[in-house]
Amino acid sequence: MKKIIAAGIFGLSLAASGLAYAEPVKIGVITTLSGGGAGLGVDMRDAFALAMKQSGNKDVELVVEDDAQKPEIAVQLAEKMIQSDKVDLLTGIIWSNLAMAVVPNAVAQDVIYLSPNAGPSALAGAKCNKNYFNVAYQNDNFHEAMGQYANKDYKKTFILAPNYPAGKDSLTGFKRYYKGELAGEVYTQVGQTDYAAEIAQIRDSGADSVFFFLPGGMGISFMKQYAQSGVNIPVMGPGFSFDQDILPAVGDAALGVKNSASWSKDLDNEANKQFVEAFQAEYKRLPSVYAAQSWDTANLILSALGKASVKDKDAFRAALKAADFKSVRGGFTFNTNNHPVQNIYVREVIKEGDVLTNKIVATAFEHHKDAYADQCKM
Amino acid sequence: MSIALLLEQLLNGLQLGVMLFLMAAGLTLIFGVMGLINLAHGSLYMIGAFACAAVAAATGSFWIGLAASLVAAAAAGAIIEVTVIRRLYDRDHLDQVLATFALILIFSEGTRWLFGSFPLYLDIPPLLQGAVPLPGGGQYQLYRLAIIGVGVVVALGLYVLISRTRLGMRIRAGESDREMIAALGVDIRTLYTVVFALGAALAGLAGALVGALQSVQVGMGEPALILAFVVIVIGGIGSIKGALLGAILVGVVDTMGRFLLPKALALMIPAAQAGPIGAALASMLIYIVMALILAFRPSGLFATQS
């Protein structure tokens, strides 16, 4: 009962502020709902839809389509949504390579795109755009936080990432703040499932720690194989490989691992409590960082809709930029390049009863800005 | 670089090869006997992994899960053979590729419908947990050694089955002249179903064994399928012996390439560039090997007459 009342009050407060401009708004959501990466897109879509539902705003219509994690499909969907569905806003893309394929083209047609995940460095720097708002992070951020945190305990780290743009952003981010020596730097194949050859090199390297960025199923494979290999060097990584969608499949091998993220379910603020409770009640599972970012994206849109008409682009962009919403991450503002200024935390994987989850153990950065904002001429 | 590291990498290559052999053996058998290109072989691998994970989670025993994976994959193989594949033997390869590609989509979305979009958990059984010491001071994961053992047993078993039993005789006869063996009164339809189910069971076994090492998720079969095709093309389509040697060649070349190429490049160019370039070259290496072998032996190492 308490839950329902809380949700009701939450919804009413948003609805009250949303009454100013009662006009139909169409939001296109392109995300990954099939294939190996579907877990991430499903969390994104579910959180977004729930936030819209709870707001009680009847004027918002969602057009949700599956990109199957393929850039060419995402491009077609974006064209269809802009040309024939005539959406007012676009959002939803999980992967950086898809974002790079869709975003520059969409924003050039004066469509506003809000990123609930993916933050490739190019779009934060030279190719930034007034129509592109990143509500998640710039790709380097989580890795920078881990590099900063590693300085405390480690002197010789072995680093590992897939050989694609986000993988290179990752290791670049880590090295930007890490002061120790590197025991090795290895790029793996995207989609690789067996890490025996890399683990053998880690064993031989004399490293005192391992940093890896392997999103999705790659991270599950790596952690399971690492746990059984007899190598006992501590591992760490960005939160993607230790998030709620991944942990059940990794199992106890993940216990105690330090990882970095802008959000955790135990983050102590009112908006976050409501979010975690509402998400669990609706979907019977714990939300991931993708769900949290997507929830924030939805609420950012709702806050702007309360202030300006979506048809008045200049006023609407200004309303978005004000970021006048209750973020589940606590403090949230936009930098000059429309990317977040936010805290990045270090979390540790723990067990609550039978459920593996994360708790915050340190704050790596406060009000962290990305390294590319200076290159953005907006 | 120590001897222990080199030995460990060789074992890694062998283990990858053995896993590929389990996939490739079924694929090459089905192609050799029935002339069918089965893209859905990767789906059978996925079915094996999901059956093992689901049953192991329900019963708490990896071994019951492993048995279930064999049964589930063989059953799925037999069912699609009877309902779909049987209609494709007389069609050309393009129709077969289209129909079995459709099966991939059906199995992938069906599995998602049953198990959801999130990866399943499957762990190594307690008996095979941990690592064992290697000569030279290294260590090696026990479970990977066990996979190598399973591969050797399966290879021997297939050898005996094909060269020493009546079923094997029929399989060989079906490979060389299917009209004649049908004319001699052998029930060719049942033989095809049995061979298909056998190949499916081997794929399911590979899926279950590998599922404990990596992520059990929708779409896990397709990367393995691509490598298995490389293996049978190198080994000679239809040849079990070729599949075994091709698989081990691909496994060792891929592992050693990933390990040695970035190191070799680092001697010539700055280390910061050697990493990504070496990794990119290593991912091409098995295809380069395949191209070289096909240049000199266009029908593979152990081509069967066709």
From TrEMBL, chain A:
Sorted alphabetically, the keyword list is:
Amino-acid transport, Signal, Transport
| Residues in coiled coil | none
Q: Which Gene3D superfamilies does the annotation name?
A: 3.40.50.2300
Q: Which InterPro entries match?
A: BCAA_transport, Leu-bd, Peripla_BP_I
Q: Identify the residues that the record assigns to the Leucine-binding protein domain, covering every copy.
A: 24-353
Name the source's superkingdom: Bacteria
Q: Which CDD domains match?
A: PBP1_Nba-like (cd06359)
Give the residue range of the signal peptide: 1-22
Please tell me whether the keyword Signal is annotated for this protein.
Answer: yes
Family, as annotated: Belongs to the leucine-binding protein family.
From the Swiss-Prot or TrEMBL record, give the protein name. Branched-chain amino acid transport system substrate-binding protein
Provide the species name.
Answer: Aminobacter ciceronei
TrEMBL record, chain B:
Q: Where this protein primarily resides, as one coarse class?
A: membrane
Q: What keywords appear on the UniProt entry?
A: Amino-acid transport, Cell membrane, Membrane, Transmembrane, Transmembrane helix, Transport
Organism of origin: Aminobacter ciceronei
The identity of this protein, by name, is: Branched-chain amino acid transport system permease protein
The protein's topology relative to the membrane is: Multi-pass membrane protein
Q: Pfam families, per this entry?
A: BPD_transp_2
Tell me yes or no: is Transmembrane among this UniProt entry's keywords: yes
Which protein family is named in the record? Answer: Belongs to the binding-protein-dependent transport system permease family. LivHM subfamily.
InterPro entries reported in the protein's UniProt record: ABC_transp_permease, BCAA_transport_permease
Q: What is the lineage of its organism?
A: Bacteria, Pseudomonadati, Pseudomonadota, Alphaproteobacteria, Hyphomicrobiales
Q: Where in the cell is it found?
A: Cell membrane
- Transmembrane region(s): 16-37, 44-64, 70-89, 101-122, 142-162, 190-213, 225-253, 274-296
